[in-house]
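Folding problem:
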Amino acid sequence: MDSQKKQIIEHYKQTMMWVRGLESLTEKEWRTPISRGKWTIAEVIGHLTPWDEFIITKRIPYLFKTEMLPAGPNVEIMNQAAAKASRESRKEETIQTYLHVRERLLEEIMNLSNDQWKQTIRIGKNELTLFEYFNGLTEHDNHHFNQIKSALLV
């Protein structure tokens, strides 16, 4: 297996285990903002799911085709809708939905060939490798997980 592909797969496996660990949070902790005026832990985790779904349905199937990629969603609208849904859902439901969708994303990534990891893809005006694309997504995950870790230490 390509080492870059392996690195991305490991990241996604670890995120699933880490988020599963959040099931032990109390309801108060789960609904705690990551910092003053920011989203709660519930909202942060909940907003990751629609982005994973977007990658599964609107990115991966189009990455190696000549046709244009579907337009991305309005970030603000999608994030706000996900945050609202997380506020209205039980912790277990938000976590299970995240895990289910993340597992689907992981399967899609595992189905990408080693050769595809070496190809350049075009997203908008940017050319990048598949690893660079997914590495950017892992950095986004890590940013939010570090915010959660900091909030839980307070």
